[in-house]
Amino acid sequence: MNIECIKYLYNEKSISLDIEAGITLKVRDDVFRPGTVRVHLPAPINAAWLKEGYLVDSDPMFRMMSVEDFPQRSAYFNEIMTENTPFSISYGFSSVHDYVCPDIALIDNTAQKSFTKDEIVRFSAAGHCGCESYTALTPDKVTIRDVAPEKGLKFKESYKEFLSSHGIDSDKCVCGKAAETLCKDTCDEDTAKTIGKGTLAKTIYKLVVDKYILSEGETLNTVFTAMCRMCGIPARWQGGWALSDTFEGASGTTTGNVISHDWAIINLQPYGWIYADCDFAKKAGDTNIPGSTEPLKSFFFGNIDPCMVPTASAPAADLYPAKDYVRADKVFNYRGEIELVPGKMNVNDIAEGYGLKADEFETEMFIVLC
Q1: CB neighbours of 143 closer than 8 A, spacing ≥ 6?
Q2: Sheet holding 64-65, edge to edge
Q3: The dihedral of CA 197, 199, 204, 205: what is its sign?
Q4: Cα–Cα 20 to 30 A to 204, which of 225, 254, 292, 361?
Q5: CA 339: distance to chain centroid?
Q6: Which residues pair with 25 in a beta bridge?
Q7: 98-312: what fold?
Q8: What is the pLDDT of residues 49-59, one digit of tens each?
Q9: What angle do CA 114, 119, 124 make, to 5 degrees?
């Protein structure tokens, strides 16, 4: 996370950054063999804070790029290679954020667009998971398609048990009163849609950040998203690139080690879609935003690090065009995918190719604040 940018956003209440970001992928020399190579390199998806995006460079030039609201967007390369040369692409854009400090009392006294867990599950089973630009939707455009779970966000009994152990019954109560005074009986529909969602969302956030223990394959933000949906709060997931640490480069630009990261987006009126980042909040611990008394944990309920680059709006979504072979990363879209397809056929007239595993190629990502 970029603490200096977070500090600026908190103090000035808005921030606008010019960012360049990109990735280079190269097959390991001991793995490479001549033939047709198909490569997917992550591309920034359509997100509310990305403005004026453009291509900086592509080497070689990509053959196509999926549309900007595709769930896991990528630039696609299809090359016949005789030598092991890298693939690279870089992008430029402006990152524009306004600081949000959610007033829970205001949210609880504002009518909410709300869905019960049963509604979410029912519409999900019908296959309505869509691929619209979820962060850009205005409150009056929110539909059931925007809360349907994707393939990678399943409702788990462990989530339900965890909520129940802390006084939240996701089956019976969707009103969202404070955890210690939650209703034990089903609320009437009007009440369920008009009170308590802010309190409930903040309660779930604190539970996930402070007490949830991850199991294999989970992230805190997928857990938070799933729990919000279980309680009828519209919630979405995003993932992409983030800075793990920062330093001042020789040219004066801020750069750092780029990692995969994810975060959540929830819909709470009158704010609409706001961000939450349980992972960075947990890593922040008890520290404050530099120069203030505001806990960094609180910042990440309503805001995210403005230096992040989103490359996926749904976990475990497909690429376009689809790979013929198994992906190196089945959930995220941050380090690229590659498959080798030599031109000759075997005795069964099947191309002798395969998808490379994560340890068979090397990637390097960068984020530079210009």
Answers
A1: none
A2: 64-65, 74-81, 35-42, 337-341, 354-355
A3: positive
A4: 292
A5: 25
A6: 87, 363
A7: C8orf32 fold (3.10.620)
A8: 888 889 999 99
A9: 115
